[in-house]
Design goal:
Blueprint (H helix, E strand, L loop, with lengths): L1 H15 L1 E10 L6 E9 L6 E5 L5 E6 L3 E3 L3 E4 L5 E9 L2 E2 L5 E5 L3 E5 H4 L3 E4 L4 E10 L5 E3 L9 E4 L12 E5 L1 E8 L2 E8 L6 H18 L6 E7 L7 E4 L2 E5 L12 H11 L1 E3 L4 H19 L4 H15 L12 H21 L6 H11 L1 E3 L1 H12 L8 H4 L9
Parallel strand pairs: 1-12, 17-18, 18-20, 21-22
Antiparallel strand pairs: 1-2, 2-7, 3-6, 3-11, 4-7, 5-6, 8-9, 9-10, 10-15, 12-14, 13-15, 16-17, 19-20
Helix pairs in contact: 3-5, 4-5, 5-7, 6-7, 8-9
The chain binds zinc ion.
The site of zinc ion has 4 residues, from helix 4 and helix 5.
Length: about 400
């Protein structure tokens, strides 16, 4: 009887949900360094208040059919009636502290993140009110757009994030005169795009993913259905950067570097895991990305046992230069040290479970949870998998100076 009730309940709840349309329209013109963006809301009921968190250097000229309040870091908009819109200019170029760009526009293309084109938004609305969000591009002749989302019309993409009541665009986007290749690898539709004439080796990258992704999917079966990889050359940041369902990789980066790591696989693991560290735990995020980058190459036969062992030797030398794992962001030596920790954790879980479980099971559980990760959570998940506390994850163990130990 209560089974019938249970099945009836979600339907009753669903009936109460009301939707309104939220449409981001982004217009680009060659030679103009910003996009003209308009957010249109339409529906029987609209949110009562929309607050955008802004960086005044990147967003300007806010206008609306309703009165708006604009301060240095926020824009407050109170939509009215059944239809309301807000427009602004989005300055595409953005330089990192290193001087290279993580968002860039030329007369022929623009590369940026969807969650920058749309500033972070806080919506006040009735509890049952949800957005049906799309992003549409108004582009010069000969231009096209790729985003992490499936196309739902000409240069139009539907954004659906079931966890949110107001869906905002996220991940990497490339518009312009671009070349695109795509391929389906198991359940994943992989799309690789770069500006026309760019040196990015799209076919090589696709072949590389074709042979490595299946190994990664064995660890992460819930990998996003769509994967977008965008590349461009200088002055873009000379590395890889991942976003939801998408990756930027500088065109000049090799698929496998001299030290046997793969920047592309590293970013793919970030997409698969979808986790970020708390204030001291970036080493968990970066360590797992690098661990599975090297492991995937080994499992796919991309590197043999000898070259794998050399890679581990390199990591050991490098790790000695990391005074601690715990810090706001983990790079080079810290990440090398973190990879060695995960090797020990893997070995310990395998030995505690007679080889019936491994770090793969921990990583899979973390990917299912997603979101922020702390050492305590990692210890808990590892304990669930191993059946008892994992010694190599004890804080005392992790804070010891690095000594060479065989995994
Ligand atoms: Zn990383």
């Amino acid at each position: 009887m209560w089974l019938a009730l249970l099945t009836a309940a979600p339907a009753a709840l669903a009936a109460k949900v009301a939707y309104y349309d939220a449409t981001y329209r982004a217009a680009f013109k060659p030679g103009i360094p910003h996009a003209q963006v308009q957010l249109d809301l339409a529906g029987e009921k609209l949110p009562s208040k929309v607050v955008l968190r802004i960086d005044p250097k990147r967003y300007r000229n806010f206008r609306s059919s309703e009165p708006i309040e604009v301060t240095d870091d926020e824009v407050t908009w109170r939509p009215q009636g059944n239809r309301s819109s807000l427009s602004y200019e989005f300055v595409v170029n953005h330089q990192r502290s290193s001087g290279s760009y993580d968002s860039y526009i030329t007369p022929n293309w623009a590369l940026f993140r969807g969650d920058k084109l749309a500033p972070s938004t806080r919506v006040t609305a009735a509890r049952n009110l949800r957005s049906r969000t799309t992003i549409e591009f108004d582009l010069p002749k000969g231009w096209s757009a790729v985003t992490p989302y499936a196309s739902s019309g000409e240069e139009r993409f539907r954004i659906d994030d079931p966890k949110r009541r107001f869906d905002e665009p996220e991940g990497w986007m490339l518009v312009g005169k671009i070349g695109v290749r795509s391929e389906r690898i198991q359940h994943v539709n992989a799309v690789i795009a770069a500006p026309e004439g760019d040196s990015a080796r799209r076919q090589d990258a696709l072949a590389f993913i074709n042979w490595n992704l299946p190994k990664l999917l064995e660890v992460f079966p819930d990998f996003p259905k769509r994967l977008l990889i965008v590349s461009a050359g200088d002055p873009m940041w000379r590395g890889g950067l991942s976003g939801p369902g998408s990756i930027f990789l500088h065109s000049d980066r090799p698929l496998i570097s001299e030290n046997r790591t793969s920047p592309l696989l590293h970013e793919l693991v970030h997409v698969a895991l979808g986790i970020r560290g708390d204030k001291e735990s970036d080493w968990i995020v970066e360590g797992l990305a690098e661990f599975y980058s090297i492991q995937t190459l080994r499992r796919s036969g991309g590197i043999g046992q000898n070259r794998y062992e050399q890679a581990v030797e390199n990591l050991k030398k490098w790790a000695r230069r990391a005074p601690t794992l715990f810090g706001k962001s983990s790079t080079g030596a810290t990440t090398a040290r973190a990879v060695l920790v995960f090797q020990q954790v893997d070995a310990e879980i395998r030995s505690l479970t007679n080889n019936t479980a491994s770090l793969d099971d921990v990583a899979r559980k973390l990917a299912a949870k997603r979101g922020e990760i702390s050492l305590t959570e990692l210890q808990e998940v590892a304990q669930q998998v191993a059946g008892k506390p994992v010694q190599s994850l004890r804080r005392e163990e992790l804070t010891k100076p690095v000594v060479e130990r065989e995994p």
